[in-house]
Protein: M15 family metallopeptidase
Amino acid sequence: MAPELLTPRDLERLRGVHPDLVRVIRRARRDAAFFVIEGVRSAERQRVLVAGGASRTQNSRHLTGHAVDLGPIPLDWQNIDSFRAIARVVQAAAEAEGVSIRWGGSFTGFFDGPHFELTWAAYPV
Ligand SMILES: [Zn+2]
Structure:
């Protein structure tokens, strides 16, 4: 059994997140330093984020446990490369686990660097 690198706070924030996505994050954490910013989100919190411009959709995968936001350690929102580096590791972990994911940094029109979600195609809910 590989050692647990996620902190108790990370694990708390992953509660309710789809087990396939949790598996990917757990594997990725072996090769990259990041923490879990947020997992499951309430509809009310999503409304607040959309109203504030931090999110673009009320149909967020966070509502159903199909998305997580990960922050590089140390967290520097201006350091886009640090988000790209995490994304490469998470993508590789997803491939190793046979899980289909999409990175928010590849969304058109809106760079969502910390965001990872299970694809709608493979996980229609
Ligand atoms: Zn997100």
Summary: The chain has a mean pLDDT of 94. The chain has four helices and four strands. The longest strand covers residues 67-72. The radius of gyration is 14 Å.
